[in-house]
Amino acid sequence: MIHRIDMSLAPVIDWGHVYPALEDTVRDQLSRYPRLLDRIQNSITFLLTTHRDHAFHGALLRASLTELVSTEDVQRWLGLPAHHLNDSGSPLLSVSRELRNLELHLSSPTITGENRDLLWGKAGDPENARPVNWEITWIDDLDISKFEELRGFDKKYDRNQFKQALDWFDDVQRKWGIEEIVIRAIHEFAKELISRHC
Known about the structure:
The chain is mainly alpha-helical and 198 residues long. It contains eight helices and two strands; from the N terminus they run H-H-H-H-E-E-H-H-H-H.
């Protein structure tokens, strides 16, 4: 089955999280299914555990993505109809799902980072924001050819659609950091789970 990717579902990213956490309403609704909520919370926690060693940083990223994708299996354990990350056509969720498969089965990410001057404050009130200098990290070797090596990739995706989604993903993760992009994937999928099961 080919999973269609709809680039109109790509989120506009023009600010980043400082202290990522699930919205209270999302957490409260998912609390009906504690095992699902645990996996979602674990996925966020791994991203919050920063580390200067980029190799270990990559391990934390793999752990976060693994917990996120494991929610697909948890739904089956709970007797719920399975909703997968790539079911909605979201480029963010489709690439995140396959990134987990890539990192788990074929390679480890090469994490690169640099310090950037940013503003810390409310997104709608940049005039009162405080200047900060933080490290932004990203995966620097995302390439469609690596994803094509995944078993069944050609049966799951149209190559051109996936490449367009991957190019978008690579661009935003280099601007905002891989943690920010995965945090947004976690939030988006948590809301999809709520719309399906709550």
